[in-house]
Write a structure and sequence with these properties.
Layout (H helix, E strand, L loop, with lengths): L1 H4 L12 E10 L2 E8 L5 E5 L4 H11 L2 H5 L3 E4 L3 H10 L4 E4 L1 H22 L5 H12 L1 H5 L10 E4 L3 E4 H9 L3 H18 L3 H9 L8 H17 L10 H16 L6 H13 L1 H51 L1
Parallel strand pairs: 1-4, 4-5
Antiparallel strand pairs: 1-2, 2-3, 6-7
Length: about 325
């Protein structure tokens, strides 16, 4: 496996114009760093550690200043260490913080606020217990985009009865002013991201926050303000971290199937082979399908040949019978 993987190792002759950075866990408390071509989804290389020194040494020792200057965009998450060294290593690259991580950040803040309010209602009071059960059961409703909430279709909801989806959300928000205000800000942020309104997002971040807004959402807003120069690039470029997140999910499956790897080099080689041998597998599948198709064609030809032969014999037999009948007359 290690010998085969050598054929797919990077030669460090050039870098793609558009990169994507991320990390994945491969051991107890160990995180590896990977970077890919964000357009094609091809893994460029994987490093054993995600610490700043390892990453900087890797790029400085393997790629020239000219090669690194040709990189135009780098898509990443809100990892502060990446944002700090990217301008030094890639002077001409725009940093793009993927919108998925923006939504993920505010989504977690909203859910933490719901849990906080829910636990506050965990008392011996019967009415509070009912509110607690509702908030626990219908947590997904509070995280749902407002544009996807139904305002017209009645349906049955346990603990509520026959109601509109919008009505049960409104009732749950009425349980607590902190929950209601956090939900309002949460939906405004989601709408700005969904509609690609960078100015609207900037206005939301610049507004003075209400005292009723949860501390979780206040922290998220502070994070978004700090990263806004890079966040706004997600509205102007078509790139995101979708491909590298998909690769990471497959990498986790490889690790789980093998019950972990003690040697990082073996793990890296296994990953490289998995993603580079796909075209070979596809080619083998194509050859197999062509072979099956040829076998099917030969079988059909033989079947038709048998039918024609049978018809010829039948006609010949009929001719002989007719000749005997004529002779007997």
């Amino acid at each position: 496996m290690n010998e085969q993987a050598k054929e797919y190792r990077p030669y460090y002759h050039s870098l793609p114009e558009n990169l994507s950075f991320d990390e994945f866990k491969y051991g107890e408390g160990q995180m590896a760093f990977e970077y890919i071509d964000v357009v094609s989804g091809t893994i460029v290389d994987i490093l054993e550690s995600k610490d700043t020194r390892t990453i900087k040494n890797h790029f400085l020792s393997r790629y020239s200043q000219k090669q690194r200057s040709q990189v135009k965009t780098i898509t990443t998450d809100m990892n502060a260490s990446y944002v700090s060294f990217i301008p030094k290593l890639f002077p001409n690259a725009d940093i793009i913080i993927d919108r998925f991580h923006i939504v993920q950040l505010v989504n977690r803040s909203m859910n933490k606020t719901r849990v906080k309010v829910m636990n506050r209602l965990r008392t011996s009071n019967g009415e509070d217990q009912k509110k607690y059960r509702r908030l626990k059961r219908f947590w997904k409703k509070l995280l749902k985009k407002e544009s996807a909430v139904s305002y017209t279709a009645y349906q049955y909801f346990p603990l509520f009865g026959q109601r509109l989806e919008a009505a049960i959300i409104s009732e749950m928000l009425a349980y607590d002013s902190e929950l209601k205000e956090t939900y309002r800000v949460y939906q405004a942020l989601l709408k700005a991201v969904e509609l690609n309104h960078s100015k609207q997002l900037r206005q939301l971040l610049d507004q003075s926050t209400s005292p009723e807004l949860s501390v979780y959402m206040k922290t998220s807003l502070k994070t978004l303000r700090a990263h806004f120069p890079h966040i706004q690039n997600t509205f102007y470029y078509p790139y995101n971290n979708g491909k590298i997140e998909g690769i990471n999910n497959k990498i986790k499956v490889l690790n789980r199937v093998a019950y972990g790897y003690r040697n990082f080099i073996h793990y890296k080689n296994r990953i490289i082979l998995h993603f580079n041998l796909k075209p070979i597998r596809n080619k083998l599948n194509t050859i197999e399908k062509e072979r099956e198709s040829r076998i099917g064609s030969v079988f059909l030809y033989l079947l038709v040949l048998d039918i024609v032969t049978w018809l010829q014999l039948a006609v010949h037999h009929m001719v002989i019978l007719h000749a005997h009948e004529v002779a007997s007359l």
